[in-house]
Amino acid sequence: MESIHLNVALLRRRVPNLTKAARSVGLRPATVSNLCTGKIALGRTEVRTLVALASLAECSVDELIIRGEKFEMIETGIKTIDLFAPLAKGGTAGLVARPGMGQLVVLAEIFHRLKKEGYSIVMLQPEGDHPEISDITADVDSVHLTINEAEKAVIQAAKTHEVIFVSDRSHVQNGSIYQLQEKWAGEASVTTFLVDLKGEAVDEDLPYGPLETLWQFDMDLSARHMYPAIHPIYSTSSVLEGANLDQEHFSTQQKAQKLLRRYRELKSIVRASGMEPLSDTDAQLFKRGEKLESYLTQPFFVAEAFTGVKGTHVPMKKMLTDVRKITDGGYDHKGVEEFAMVGSLD
């Protein structure tokens, strides 16, 4: 089957304020966001939705659809990211979280890992006073005060390296990031990270405009110190479109999400009344979901000095094997405490 997906880069360039524009033509921003990240398959989208988006971008429907190309995944070795919301190489990833939920730690860890893979990391200084930004600059090659400086640094670095570019949401709101991406389009291989240091993006639809990857952080996981606190249901990526993943990854991801959805439904019952009201089947699903949720926590290299726990890198194939074994009941005999803050299940 031919791979088709939305031309997110075109939408990003042509319709900077996509939330307002989508509503103006009767489209739900959440629907547009899910189309951009691939959570809603393009092949199942109503024609009127595509026509409305094409109208906003002032292009034809054919221009809005990319055929045959596949998104390449950047494997991070971070279990919950690689399973539920893989990083799309050359795409734009947005982090949605309130302060204190661990988004900067995740960014610092990503930079630390990709630096070892030979990536060059360029940052655009956020507007305003944000001392916490120092937490993520250890592996950043250069920090720039202006758009022009950042553009020159990215293009120069791209001559010899794959490039990671990071910016705060303030530069997205004024449209400067879209202009920057348009300038280096075709000249450089750049994967962009957008972060919201003020924590306002949580309350908005499409806070960054169209994205290839969305990492939504979960308050419940964060409150229970289950890091990285990335939501396994709401986080998503265009890499997850069926044609981009091998069948093993796709089926494992779908089965894991189904289990965690049911686990989260049952958790409210267990909190209120204990395990007694659950049927044997639901009790089994609850315990497997609890173990999977615990397994998706992971020690980070950048946190070793604070936690005293050595960071772990889990290859994707090993992670998929572990997840399948948990969902299929291969670890039903083990206690949930054996899954917390570990790497692979060797």
Automatic annotation (TrEMBL):
- Where's the ATP synthase A/B type C-terminal domain? 244-326
A Gene Ontology CC term for this entry? proton-transporting ATP synthase complex
**Where does this one sit in the cell?**
Membrane
Q: What is its main location?
A: membrane
PROSITE patterns in the record: ATPASE_ALPHA_BETA (PS00152)
Any one GO MF term held by the record is:
ATP binding
Which keywords belong to this entry? Answer: ATP synthesis, ATP-binding, CF(1), Ion transport, Membrane, Nucleotide-binding, Translocase, Transport
Question: Domain of life here?
Answer: Bacteria
Q: Does the keyword Membrane apply?
A: yes
Record-stated family: Belongs to the ATPase alpha/beta chains family.
What PANTHER family does the record tag this protein with?
ATP SYNTHASE, ATP SYNTHASE SUBUNIT BETA, MITOCHONDRIAL
Kindly provide the name given to this protein in its UniProt entry: ATP synthase A/B type C-terminal domain-containing protein
Q: Which organism encodes this protein? A: Halobacillus litoralis
Taxonomic lineage of the native organism: Bacteria, Bacillati, Bacillota, Bacilli, Bacillales
